[in-house]
Amino acid sequence: MDNSIHVPDGYSVSKRLQSELVQLMMSSTPGISAFPEDDSNLLKWFGTIEGPEDTPYENLKFKISLDFPNNYPYKPPTIKFISPMWHPNIDMSGNICLDILKEKWSAIYNIQTILLSLQSLLGEPNNKSPLNAQAAQLWDTDMKEYKRLLMQRYEEIDD
């Protein structure tokens, strides 16, 4: 007999997030990491994303926050860049425009796929729907100026 029907919803969310944490720790995917802020609240996480090679973000590391809703994975987490960011699809407050975090969200996505998507977004912005129009324009026309403005905003983070 399956008793999981009688378990409060928060339990299954915690279980899912715990298994995703283990999965993330077991897979040594380079350049991405995420952990709960503290053991008492699995719904609030911090993560880091390293810029992909051969992009303006190479050798740069950024801190993000991940807030999971009570009905995760049926609704996407809210993810923001805490580190100052210069990117066509990220505004000055750290909000991200990425379809899999909005209308294209699916419960099959997990923290690892989200982090990998964000990492690849750094090197492959969607300039058709920019949150930062100046960054989008410079990405297409003047990479040297783009990199200068990126480095002007960039702040090193502690591991």
| Top-tier CATH class | Alpha Beta
**Main sheet: strands, sense, barrel:** 4 strands, antiparallel
End-to-end separation: 46 Å
Question: Order of strands in the sheet with the most strands?
Answer: 1-2-3-4
Identify the CATH homologous superfamily: Ubiquitin Conjugating Enzyme
Assigned CATH architecture: Roll
Q: Percent helix among the residues?
A: 25-40%
Extended strand count: 4
Q: Which residues form runs of ≥5 with pLDDT under 50? A: 1-8
Shape: globular
Sheet/helix structural class: alpha+beta
What keywords describe this structure?
E2 ubiquitin-conjugating enzyme, globular, Ubiquitin Conjugating Enzyme, single chain, ATP binding, 4 strands, 159 residues, alpha+beta, transferase
What would your notes on this structure say?
With 159 residues, the protein is an alpha+beta fold. It has one domain (13-153): Ubiquitin Conjugating Enzyme, CATH 3.10.110.10. It contains 4 helices and 4 strands. It has a 4-stranded antiparallel beta sheet with strand order 1-2-3-4. Strand 1 (32-38) and strand 2 (41-50) form a beta hairpin. The chain is globular. It starts with 8 loop residues before the first helix and ends in a 6-residue tail after the last helix. Mean pLDDT is 91; it is low at 1-8.
